Write a sequence for this structure.
C-alpha cells in the first residue's frame, strides 16, 4: 500500500497538464509533515487528495492553496476532520 505522501505525489503526476493548482497543492501536501500526520489519523479512504481538496474548498469557500490548507488545519482542525469523515470517498 502506498504511503499518504506517495499517494499525493502520484496524484500530482496524474494531474499534470490538467490542473496546475492541484499539481502544486498535492506536491506541497506530500512534503508537509503536519498535514501528513493529520491525514494519517484518518481512515485510508478519507486521505484521498481529491477528497481533501474538495472538503477544504467547501470549508474555505474557495479552492485551497497550501497556505490556506495549513491555516484550515491550524484553526479548524476538528471541523476539517469531521467534514472528511462525513464525506463519501471512493475506496
Amino acid at each position: 500500500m502506498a504511503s499518504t505522501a506517495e499517494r499525493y505525489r502520484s496524484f500530482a503526476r496524474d494531474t499534470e497538464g490538467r490542473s496546475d493548482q492541484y499539481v502544486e497543492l498535492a506536491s506541497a501536501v506530500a512534503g508537509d509533515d503536519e498535514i501528513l500526520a493529520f491525514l494519517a489519523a484518518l481512515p485510508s479512504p478519507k486521505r484521498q487528495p481529491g477528497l481533501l481538496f474538495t472538503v477544504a474548498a467547501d470549508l474555505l469557500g474557495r479552492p485551497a492553496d497550501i497556505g490556506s490548507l495549513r491555516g484550515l488545519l491550524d484553526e479548524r482542525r476538528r471541523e476539517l476532520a469531521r467534514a472528511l469523515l462525513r464525506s463519501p470517498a471512493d475506496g
